[in-house]
Amino acid sequence: MKRREFMRQLEEKLVDLSQNDRDEAMSYYQDYMDDAGIGMDDKVPEDIGSPDDIAKKIIRSILNPDTDFIAEEKINDKTPAKTVRLEKRSSNTNKTADDRTTKIFLIILIAIATSPVWTSVLGVALGILVADIGMIIGGIAMAVVGISIIVTQMAAGTGLLVTGIACIITAIGVLLGVAITNLLNVFLPWIVRVISEFVNGEKGVA
Fold first, then answer.
1. Is the Cβ–Cβ distance between 72 and 89 less than 8 Å?
2. Torsion of CA 104, 110, 116, 121, to 10 degrees
3. How many CA atoms lie within 13 A of 139 on its CB side?
4. N-to-C CA span, the chain
């Protein structure tokens, strides 16, 4: 079987894997073929195994990572560079997991140490939000009183004054509420993104 058809069948056998695992496996075996000097139209040696056999070994290695090195080593004893790469990948995976755990633990410690600060900020923000809601409700109630003065007491001047003040208070409350909402929509996702990028070790935090 030619390499082109071999890789096509292998990809079909791995269709149930996640996109990331499938891409990693396909990339690995593309490199494997390149290192072995097998061109796209060259015949794949039988000792490498069939696409079905390799797919089963890949799936088994994902379900049980401890079998990864052994399974690949048995495919072809003439590929020491590949077995070393698998060992290195496993080591890097473990190191990444350890780094991620350390960073999460560090975030928890920072959160505990700075809790007086952010709880105070949270309390102030909550107080502003409650005050804003009260301002809107109070403005609406005041507007109702102003209208009732106009209707029941026939005091148009006083009623219009009260209603006008009520409208101003309500408008300020609504604008403040919109500002707070927009601020939270920008700030909270930014905090989540910064923490996520820090834990995952990604670059480009802005």
1. no
2. -70
3. 17
4. 50
Copy the structure tokens of residue 92: 């890097």
Structure tokens at 109: 């410690």
Q: How many CB atoms lie within 10 A of CB 142?
A: 19
Token pair for residue 185?
């929509």
For 130-181, the pLDDT digits (tens) are 888 888 898 899 888 888 888 887 677 888 888 889 899 888 988 888 888 8
Q: Which phi and psi angles does 2 have, rounded to 5°?
A: -70, 155
Give which of 22, 4, 24 is closest to 13, Cα–Cα: 22
pLDDT of residue 32: 83
Residue bearing tokens 């140490």: 113
Is 43 in a helix, a strand, or coil?
strand
Cα separation of 48 and 116, whole Å?
Answer: 62
- Residues lower than pLDDT 70 in the chain: 64-98, 154, 199-206
Encoded tokens for 102? 């350390």
E-strand spans in the chain? Answer: none
DSSP of 71-109: HHHHH-TT-HHHHHHHHHHHHHHHHHHHHHHHHHHHHHH
- Rounded to two decimals, the pTM is 0.39
Residue 186 has which token pair? 């920008």
Long-range CB pairs of 79-85 (<8 Å, 24+ gap) are: 79/32, 79/35, 79/36, 81/35, 82/32, 82/35
